[in-house]
Amino acid sequence: MTDLFTKDERENLTKALTEGLVLLPDTDIPGLTMMIWENIAGLPHAIESNFNIIGNSSILNVLNENKEPIMNIHINPEQLQFELAIPEYKFTQKDRVTAAFATMSTVDAWNKITNFV
User: Fold this and answer.
1) What is the distance between the alpha carbons of residues 100 and 4, in angstroms, rounded to a whole number?
2) Number of CB atoms found within 10 A of residue 19's CB
3) In the chain, what is the straight-line distance between the N-terminal and C-terminal CA atoms, in Å?
4) Which sign, positive or negative, has the C-alpha torsion 102, 106, 111, 115?
5) What are the tens digits of pLDDT across the range 40-83?
6) In Å, how far are 3, 9, 97 from 76, measured between CA atoms?
7) What is the pLDDT of residue 4?
């Protein structure tokens, strides 16, 4: 993964994964969920995902090439958080790339919906 991203990009990915992303009051959770899902679906790197919107919260599951969840993205009114669905030591190189691209797609959607870009 280190060859794919600049030092700043790696630091931003690490920060997003470990600390999550704060959401503004009245964030459109279903809209953010759909934007993240669409961003992931539009990547040139083949990633599959599914989602479940429950009230004002949602969960996106990022799947590996075997269609097994490797990462979950939890979105609630206060914060967007990332959770590994399998232990990190079981990640293949492809799983790491998939998780990184999914994280970048999520941060991009978060930037857009919070008007930081």
Assistant:
1) 10
2) 11
3) 25
4) positive
5) 888 766 677 777 877 788 888 888 888 888 999 999 988 999 99
6) 33, 25, 25
7) 64
Cβ atoms of 41 and 98 closer than 8 Å? no
Residue type (1 letter), 95: D
Q: How far is 51 from 61, CA to CA, in rounded Å?
A: 6
Closest by CA position to 79, among listed 36, 25, 23: 23
What secondary structure, in 3-state letters, does 11-69 show?
Answer: HHHHHHHHHCEECCCCCCHHHHHHHHHHHHHCCCCCCEEEEEEECCEEEEEEECCCCCE
Q: Which of 80, 88, 84, 85 is nearest to 106 (CA)?
A: 80
Structure tokens of 98? 């998939």
Residue with tokens 């939890």: 74
Residue-wise DSSP of 61-86:
EEE-TTS-EEEEEEE-SSEEEEEESS
Q: Return d(Cα 54, Cα 107) in angstroms, integer.
A: 21
